[in-house]
Amino acid sequence: MDKDITETxxxxxxxxxxxxxxxxxxxxxxLDKYTKKxxxxxxxxxxxxxxxxxxxxxxxxxxxVS
Length: 66
Fold this sequence. Notes:
Layout: H1 9-15, H2 19-28, H3 40-52, H4 58-65
InterPro entries: DUF4372
Domain DUF4372: 7-59
Protein name: DUF4372 domain-containing protein
C-alpha cells in the first residue's frame, strides 16, 4: 500500500458517523457532565481504534494512543 495516502481507513470510517447526532445524544443524556479530559467522543474513538487494530489489552491500547 502506498504511504502517501492522505485518507486513512480510520478517517474513511469516521466520515460515515454522524457526530452531530452523537453530540446531541451525549448532551441530552448528560454523559459528559463531570468529564474533564476523556469525553464520550474520545472514548468512542479510542475504543473504535482498538477494535480496528485488534489491540489485545487496555494496556496496549493505552500505549498505542498516547
